[in-house]
Amino acid sequence: MAPSWQAEAQATLFGGIKGEELEKLLVCMDSTRKKYRRQEMILSEEEIPDRIGIVLEGSVIAEKDCEICWMHIGKVLSVCPAACPCHQQMLRNLVTSLAGKNVAFSEKITCLSRRSTREKLLSYLSETAKKEKKRHFVIPFNRQELADYLCVDRSAMSAELSKLRREGVLDYKRSEFWLL
Question: Domain HTH crp-type spans what residues (predicted)?
Fold first, then answer.
């Protein structure tokens, strides 16, 4: 029985590629699936991979059970002899995804280059407001995750948020923020 490629179809890399085309593409890419248990090593620093991995379920570092689709790097990065449209679509999706990650890393570097916790917070929150095109928005982090993202101490960040609220700069409730 042929494997079901339902999980792969949900991956951004395969956007716009459906059904039989996706199956053919994954066979062409010499794809394999592997499940990993919680805390299991997915790839060590010493390993030089010849495959690219796409997390289908779970998260990397195997914080919980996960499943990864492995594809041969050479086959992903070169156009197959058949020059199939689905392979070209996948390459476009890959470039779009990498460009998006590059923008996100640049934004993070801008925030992290600030000296104080206050400056990092204001940089992140104002950039988020600008992206959302509104002064009221929800961030995708809880307090600890935001502190980790900004590379600051959580209690110092919480104290700075309280100070900004008292000063009338912003208001917040959990992950919801209002820039005043």
Answer: 115-180
